[in-house]
Design goal:
The complex is a heterodimer of chains A (234) and B (589). Chain A is built from eight helices and no strands. Chain A is 78% helix and 0% strand. Chain B has 589 residues and is mainly α. Chain B has a domain of 178 residues: Cytochrome C Oxidase, Chain A (Up-down Bundle), CATH 1.20.210. Helix content of chain B is 61%, strand content 1%. Chain B has a two-stranded antiparallel ribbon. The longest helix of chain B has 37 residues. The chains are: A mainly alpha (234), B mainly alpha (589). Chains A and B meet through α1, α2, α3 and α6 of A and α5, α6, α7 and α8 of B.
Chain lengths: 234, 589
């Protein structure tokens, strides 16, 4: 359970940092009237939707940290047989990186108000994300064709489970991206469009990061890294 | 001290108002409503309805335990199903949903001075997914093989094996799917509660001016958002084990002479995941109760809450600590003794902030102008019950004491006292307190007092004797103990007595439900602020509050939530939105 505890420690650090700016040491019973710079204290200057997405990403991060914890605990048992990583996953990773770059371009374009570039970026990001999903499915088929079925070994089960969960989150992101694209083509308000493109970009980068972490985990680098750390500590 | 600008009135908001969704038809106003208040009532009604099912299940269990062998239809399998569904419904579908979905939705926007939740559409979805989860849960009663009888902890391997009711039928699958849906729905609601507290507060409402109710619900929601994923992970993996034959949790097992296809999995892994959710869950239910009780005591004792800052820090501290105590539910799972030592230590440390809160409640009462209204009675009952349940928690938190008491009725008595009776009592107190705001009418006083005394004394008479049964060694989860030597004649008498009390207490709840419905039309008119309370929800222009809560201008907050009996003030309470200062606050502390 160490992975999830480290993750929660990070969350607790962020929460603690935020709380330390909220004047928890004041004596509210002595203070009447409007306090100092109340606008800064009352709420963040960030758009509410971004904060909402941030909290949601913390929950998603928690979910994958828990899967990782379970992965390491199950891996320690004797029947674990690691499965070969299909080379196709490298290609898929590249495609997902492209997708993230495309949506970043869209986000930059939205900031400058170039609607054409926004549309191009969104379309590229959506298509590449779809290609990534198809690539993942092809990787699944390759593995099962080689006899690595879901239930034949816990390593396989975790492979399908983790890639599947990640794929589902990408699918959900595509729904959001679809809505943003509809807005981009139907001439949504520039402010609103910019916000929703930025939200998509946040989600996309986060899922890319999650994918890289999962990839490292499945390929075995993550456990090598942890072994090295453990060696340094003991 | 920070500089304070003169305490004069400030012109109304310069901040942009949020766009409010306006319903166009009866359907969008009362059914598919995006108004947090309607959603709160929907959540509460659904939770109460499913809670009544769980109440009946507990009656059926007590019938069997109190009068073993009398009722043929309660087979051992049925008994396990009753246990499982009673526990799961009460903990998750009733308590969690009612505190966060019900009280959270109603009180957060009103108390922080917002027009609605920040994402009303997502909020509406949250309720409908919760309802779907409840319906899936209920459907398992009608599925072939009936609901699962795995115990509310759903421990594998037994949860998905032939011997357990629902293990190889639909029961366990429907249970897991329902939990997954609940978590998805809750996450949607939870995002709303957190972000509304962060971003929806009106001008002047700094974090340290929030009523403790909001602090409790806010912290509990953050904990729930981080803890429920653990249950989600456990459910998904068990679903795969059950449906697709993987071996995340399932070890190699020979069942009825046949080797199952599973092998190598770890049931302990499930326990870790489950309790990583399960222990924070205790505080997810307790923290809102703590917050609400603080407000009830302060309001009805006409005195400011003692040690507000300490109360806030204690809430945050309990929230953080509750994530590092989970393995105290697993002392008998064969874990390393040093782990047991670590978790016993953290478990006992969490008693420190909790005790601070209890002292502060008692000190708030000290020399207060105590009005023994029904909400106050329930708040006082909560303190007693919670301290009682908390003290047995100190017993069970120590490994050496826990090992012999593990799996006895002592554990059942402990957790029912501390996270069953105590939070439910707060829910009742809170309903008596806020019902006038929700409906505009008071609940009937006589019926209310009857409900209080029967529930409080009756719950004590149910659960206090159970401690003795546990100390005698009577195990939990057994549907019949007639032939065992530990079951002396007096133990049987005690069991029958507990069962009879359970029926009486259950009956009082039906009186309460009747009161809830009857008073909507026939209750005494309450007016806008019957308890003369300071918090913003009592300052709305209309009662019940209209869509948008606060009329044309949002309130502006000039003071904390606990200005009761301020010397020199005209009345014994000063609402949060009243400008102006009073003599004693100007003096140095």
């Amino acid at each position: 359970m160490s992975v999830i505890l480290v993750f929660l420690l990070v969350i607790a650090g962020i929460a603690g940092w935020w709380l330390s700016h909220q004047r928890l040491m004041t004596k509210p019973w002595l203070e009447q009237g409007m306090i100092g710079d109340f606008v800064a204290l009352d709420r963040s200057a960030l758009p509410t939707a971004k904060i909402g997405l941030g909290v949601f990403l913390a929950v998603v991060g928690c979910l994958f940290a828990l899967f990782t914890s379970a992965y390491f605990m199950r891996m320690a048992l004797s029947d674990w047989r690691p499965l070969p990583i299909p080379p196709l996953l490298w290609l898929n990773t590249g495609v997902l990186v492209l997708s993230s770059i495309a949506i970043q371009c869209a986000s930059l374009a939205a900031r400058k108000g170039q609607v054409d570039m926004v549309r191009l970026g969104l379309a590229t990001a959506g298509l590449t994300a779809l290609v990534f999903l198809i690539g993942q499915l092809v990787a699944w088929r390759e593995l099962s064709a080689d006899g690595y079925f879901l239930a034949s070994n816990p390593a396989n089960s975790f492979f399908y489970l983790l890639t599947g969960m990640h794929g589902l989150h990408i699918l959900g992101g595509l729904v959001g991206l679809g809505r943003t694209s509809v807005g981009a083509w139907n001439g949504a308000q520039p402010q609103r469009l910019r916000l929703s493109v930025e939200l998509c970009a946040m989600y996309w980068h986060f899922l890319l990061f999650v994918w890289l972490a999962i990839f490292a985990l499945l390929a075995g680098w993550a456990s090598t890294l942890i072994d090295i750390c453990r060696g340094l500590l003991t | 001290m920070v500089d304070i600008t003169p305490a004069d009135a400030v012109p109304p908001a310069e901040v942009a108002e949020m766009e409010l969704y306006h319903p166009h038809s009866w359907w969008t106003k009362y059914v598919f409503s995006q108004d947090a208040k309607v959603i709160a009532i929907q959540y509460s009604a659904t939770a109460t309805a499913i809670g009544m099912v769980a109440l009946v299940l507990s009656w059926l269990m007590r019938l069997q335990l109190g009068f073993p062998g009398t009722f043929d239809f309660i087979t051992p399998e049925a008994y396990y199903q009753f246990i499982t569904m009673h526990g799961m419904i009460m903990v998750i579908y009733l308590l969690t949903a009612l505190f966060l979905g019900g009280f959270g939705n109603y009180l957060i926007p009103l108390m922080v001075g917002a027009r609605d939740m920040v994402f009303p559409y997502v909020n509406m979805l949250s309720y409908w997914i919760y309802l779907l989860a409840v319906l899936v849960l209920v459907s398992s009663f009608f599925a072939p093989g009936g609901p699962t009888g795995a115990g509310w902890t759903l421990y594998p391997p037994q949860a998905i094996m032939t011997g357990t009711p629902g293990g190889q039928d639909w029961g366990i699958i429907l249970m897991l799917v329902s939990l997954i849906l609940f978590i998805v729905g809750f996450t949607m609601g939870g995002l709303n509660y957190v972000v509304t507290v962060l971003q929806g507060r009106t001008r002047g409402m700094t974090l340290m001016r929030l009523p403790l109710t909001v602090w409790g619900i806010f912290t509990a929601t953050i904990m729930a958002l981080l803890a429920f994923p653990a249950l989600f992970v456990a459910c998904v993996m068990m679903l795969l084990d059950r449906a697709l034959g993987t071996s995340f949790f399932m070890p190699a097992i020979v069942e009825m002479g046949e080797q199952l296809q599973h092998g190598g999995g770890s049931p302990i892994l499930f326990q870790h995941l489950f309790w990583f959710f399960g222990h924070p869950e205790v505080y997810i239910v307790a923290l809102p109760a703590f917050g609400i009780v603080s407000d009830l005591i302060s309001t009805h004792a006409r005195k400011n809450i003692f040690g507000y800052r300490m109360m806030v820090w204690a809430i945050v501290g309990i929230g953080a600590l509750s994530f590092v105590v989970w393995a105290h539910h697993m002392y008998v799972s064969g874990m390393h003794p040093y782990f047991g030592f670590f978790f016993a230590t953290t478990t006992l440390i969490i008693a420190v902030p909790t005790a601070i809160k209890v002292y502060n409640w008692v000190l708030t009462l000290w020399r207060g102008d105590i009005h023994l209204t029904i909400p106050m009675l329930f708040a006082l009952a909560f303190i007693v019950t919670f301290v009682n349940g908390g003290l047995t928690g100190l017993f069970l938190g120590n490994v050496v004491v826990d090992v012999p008491l593990s799996d006895t009725m002592f554990v059942v008595a402990h957790f029912h006292m501390v996270m069953g009776v105590a939070p439910i009592i707060v829910i009742f107190g809170a309903i008596y307190h806020w019902y006038p705001k929700v409906t505009g009418r008071m609940l009937n006083e006589t019926l209310g007092r009857f409900h209080f005394w029967v529930t409080f004394l009756g719950a004590y008479l149910i659960f206090f004797p159970m401690h003795y049964l546990g100390l005698m060694g009577v195990p939990r989860r057994y549907n019949e103990l007639t032939d065992m030597t530990i079951m002396t004649e007096s133990a049987h008498h005690l069991n029958s007595f507990i069962s009879i009390m359970a029926f009486i207490v259950g009956f009082a709840q039906i009186v309460f439900l009747f009161n809830l419905i009857w008073s909507i039309r026939h209750g005494r008119e309450a007016g806008g602020n019957p308890w003369r309370a300071t918090t913003l929800e009592w300052q709305t222009p209309e009662t019940p509050p209209a869509h948008g809560n606060f009329g044309k201008d949002l309130p502006i907050v000039y003071r904390w939530a606990y200005d009761y009996s301020v010397p020199g003030a005209k009345e014994d309470f000063i609402p949060q939105n009243v400008p102006g200062s009073f003599a004693p606050s100007r003096e140095p502390a």
